[in-house]
Structures are given as structure tokens and as C-alpha cells.
Design goal:
The protein is an alpha/beta fold. It is 38% helix and 19% strand. The termini are far apart. Iron/sulfur cluster (SF4) binds next to loops.
């Protein structure tokens, strides 16, 4: 499989201490992406599931019961066939995994198998409806709807996340739209976390020579993020 990068013992993206496997390749082109270096399917290096396992097992003592591996990217589910092989190997070692995804992928047999075996799925709800999703990404919102409905129907532990960008989706009205979609598609989501847009990935656009559509936008104010998080929490009760 094509691996963009590895990160040992990150405390983000799932419960407990996690080993992050960032897969290369993503076609979604979210307007606020801070990892454009992961877009190319050729980014990073080729690694077999067995090679990855040998790196991961060194950290097994740190995972305890709720930690494990997080598959992220890029869009990890574009490599679901290979990830299923790695998941099988992890299972033999008693190591769990979480999946961090956009949800804008087709429900192939491998994708379904991977989701059903995950400790949790962290799904970024990029935008709340077909119109806004089409305006700010290159993806198909119908895929996200099918994806979230699958997670809900199969009662897969799910965390929703949304990046809040100043001037795009940083209003109470947008929170109402996100909450409505979350309630409709996945009322059993365990949590809904808002993340503030930041400019730390801007240098990657410059380095790659890719136009940054939000080059003039500043990071989201922390107090505003807290206000919006409180508001959406109230809406989701
Ligand atoms: S899904 Fe993630 S990696 Fe892909 S474009 Fe969107 S933010 Fe970037």
C-alpha cells in the first residue's frame, strides 16, 4: 500500500494512544485542506501490510485496551483492500484500529468489512448538504449520506467532525444545517467535534506550487469555536 507518513503515539484521532498510518491519495480537494501533500496517490512510500505490522507491534504495550492504530490520510478508504489485510494482521496481535475518513467513498465489500471491524470511525462531515458539498469539495454528497447511514445502521461507534472556516461556515445557521444532517443520517453518533480552521498548512501549498483558495483567510478565533461547539451541542441534545 502507499503510505504517506507514520506517526507513533499520537493522542488524537481516536481513543487512547494511537499509532497513525497516513495513507496517500485523496481526490476530494476540500477548499480548506491543510494536507495537500497527501493528495497524490504517489506520495510517500510503498509498504506491505507485514512491513507496517512489524513497525506497529513495537508500540503494542502502549495501546492498552482502548488505544491502537488510526488509519488516516489522505483518504485511507481508497486503499481499503490493502487495509483489510493489515487489519487481519492487527487482529492476530490483538491490536484495534480506528478509521479517520471523509466518508465520501463507495461502500465496497472491503470498505464495509473495515468499518465493521473498527474500534471507531471518525468521519469528517465536510459540508451538510449536496449544494454546499459540491461547492466546496469535488465529492458526491450522496456517498456521504450512504456512508453515514451504513455506520448508523450497523451501530459502528462514530465521531463526527467538522472544520469551521471563517467566512464560510462559522455561523449559527450553518450549525443548524449540520445538526439537522447529523440527526437525520446518524442520530447515534457518539460525539460531534468542531475544529477551527488554521493556516499552518499554507506553506505546503506554496511548496507544491498549488493555488491556495483560502490564502487570505485567517485562523478561526478559539472563543468563536467554543461558542459554536456549545450551540451545536445544544441542537444535538
Ligand atoms: S478529505 Fe482530507 S486530505 Fe482530502 S482534500 Fe479533504 S481535507 Fe484534504
Amino acid at each position: 500500500m502507499r503510505v504517506h507518513s507514520l506517526e507513533s503515539l499520537a493522542a488524537l484521532d481516536g481513543k487512547g494512544l494511537r499509532y497513525g498510518v497516513f495513507l496517500a491519495g485523496c481526490g476530494l480537494r476540500c477548499v480548506y485542506c491543510h494536507n495537500p501533500d497527501t493528495w497524490s496517490a504517489d506520495a510517500g512510500t510503498d509498504m506491505s501490510p507485514a512491513e507496517l505490522l512489524s513497525k506497529i507491534v513495537r508500540y503494542k504495550p502502549y495501546f492498552r485496551t482502548d488505544g491502537g492504530v488510526t488509519f488516516s490520510g489522505g483518504e485511507p478508504l481508497l486503499q481499503a483492500d490493502e487495509l483489510c489485510k493489515l487489519a487481519e494482521l492487527l487482529k492476530t496481535e490483538g491490536i484495534g484500529y480506528a478509521v479517520d475518513t471523509s466518508g465520501a467513498v463507495g461502500l465496497t465489500d472491503s470498505v464495509k468489512r473495515l468499518l465493521c471491524g473498527a474500534q471507531s470511525v471518525i468521519c469528517d462531515l465536510k459540508f451538510p448538504d449536496a449544494e454546499s458539498f459540491g461547492r466546496y469539495t469535488c465529492g458526491d454528497f450522496a456517498l456521504v449520506e450512504g456512508f453515514l447511514a451504513f455506520l448508523s445502521e450497523n451501530d459502528i461507534p462514530t465521531w463526527l467532525r467538522t472544520v469551521i472556516v471563517p467566512g464560510i461556515n462559522d455561523t449559527e445557521e450553518w450549525m443548524e444545517r449540520y445538526a439537522k444532517t447529523a440527526k437525520r443520517l446518524i442520530p447515534n453518533a457518539e460525539r460531534y467535534e468542531l475544529l477551527g480552521f488554521h493556516t499552518m498548512g499554507f506553506f505546503k501549498y506554496e511548496r507544491l506550487g498549488i493555488e491556495n483558495p483560502l490564502a487570505s483567510v485567517r485562523s478561526l478565533d478559539k472563543e468563536r469555536l467554543t461558542e459554536l461547539q456549545s450551540y451545536i451541542n445544544t441542537l444535538l441534545k
